[in-house]
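Incident review: delayed structure delivery

Summary: a single-chain prediction request sat in the queue longer than the usual turnaround. Root cause was a stuck worker, restarted by the on-call engineer. No data loss occurred. The affected request and its eventual output are reproduced below so the record is complete for anyone auditing the incident later.

Affected input:
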Amino acid sequence: MRSLLLNLAVEKELSSRMIGDIKEKTAVDKLHIIVAEPEELPAYEKYGECLLRTNVARGIYDDAQLDLENNIPLDDKVMQYMNQYSMEIMHQQRRFELYPDFQIEADWNSHYTVYMHNLFFWYNFLKRKHITHVFLSAIPHEGYDCIIYYLCKFLNIPIQLIHSCFIPFRRYPLHDFMADDSALVEEYARLSAQYAQSKIEDIPLEGSTAEVFARWTSLQPDQMRPWYMRANPFVRRLRQRFYETNIIRIWRGILGEDYVRYGVSLSFVSAAIRKTPRLLRMIPVAWKRWVFVRPVKKLSVGYRKYYQSLAEEPIYGERYIYFPLQYQPEATSNPMGGGMYADQMLPLNILSQSLPDDMKIYVKTHPEQLSLMRTRDYYTELSKIPKVRLMKIETSTYELMRNAVAVASLTGTALWECQFFGVPVLAFGYSVKNLAPLTYHVRTVEECKKALAEMELEPRRDVTKELKIYTKALHNISFAVEDMGKAVPEIVAKFVRDTDVEERM
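Output delivered after worker restart:
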């Protein structure tokens, strides 16, 4: 019997139509779905049992779901296995401390309670529902989904993931975010052999991938800068996390399609009148959002000012490793940083103890960073790490990359961009960037020292051709976001087919 668990269903990405295609293509006997939006539940319930993310993320389940009379207790084997991930998971739950739709209280007891409720529920769910396959539509990073992920590893339940890659608006399939992807390794090796004697201009790239590669190779900051950093990144992140609070912008959003379609015309006025009730309903929503976001914004601005008071300008001629802090909370640091390396002080302390006395670490905060997971004490402690210098926010990240001995990060975008300048990389985390030509994957002082010694022998080299081949390999194993409707059902069907015990027997 095939029993498939799907997380996270939402119409704008993992739509109900896609769920229907998945059920048809996989021929599963039972389907279980974690749904993001309450109003979208009816569209998914016709395909199988549904749970609501707003409840699951907080560890809230009713008596029927718990079925305590028939529960399977958590024993020592489960607890010892999960203990290694418990702190990491509870830190993931912190993303909901300041969440506009629902919240988890910030105290330790609340996080522990949510963790234990979810550990108990999902251990029972996976075993009692006889789940045979699990599909996660993103790297698990919200607490409950990481519990599912690690429990599946404990119970030997196959897992299929998809994740965003550094080529904009493309995603790729994987099974383990802490392992080098075998499909990418094989494709990169195949293409490297195929184009070994070719000139770089004879290596073809397709469509938007060719365009973004041209921007990377321009070495011009305005061209290289990712799309999400082109507007004011701090304001963009506030709007992304807490939604729009400006009623005029909300009104523009409601009427945007009509303006494009009709321009300023009677048809546009007619559309505006028809949608006036919708605007009126949004006024109290915008007010509620503003009340919620105002103290967050004020605290975030205060922390940025304090950071700036500790920060300084680069010193001309000084040798340094550039360490741009990653935005948090985000999957790119937890869990992809690997365990508690999501606390970026850990890799910074390791790096500090690895460097010669004449080398510094230039640390720059992420321009999108809000108050969550940051305090004045955090920045004070950062500034006290030996060899660390905090850089002003306005300092060009590309100039800091260009002049660095190396760039270090968990999984940040800078690890990829700096290689176009020929600058080597110290990657502490786990991502597809780890296979790029100038990357050294490090986790310890000894590994850092060894990598730095190798860099001294060949500090810089032009790897543009290798980067182009690598980009092509990643393009070939990934798919465009607009093609998700076709790609995801096929990926899940192949996953179920390849990992089905009965099929293999």
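Verification: The first strand starts at residue 3 and ends at 9.
Action items: add queue-age alerting; document worker restart procedure.
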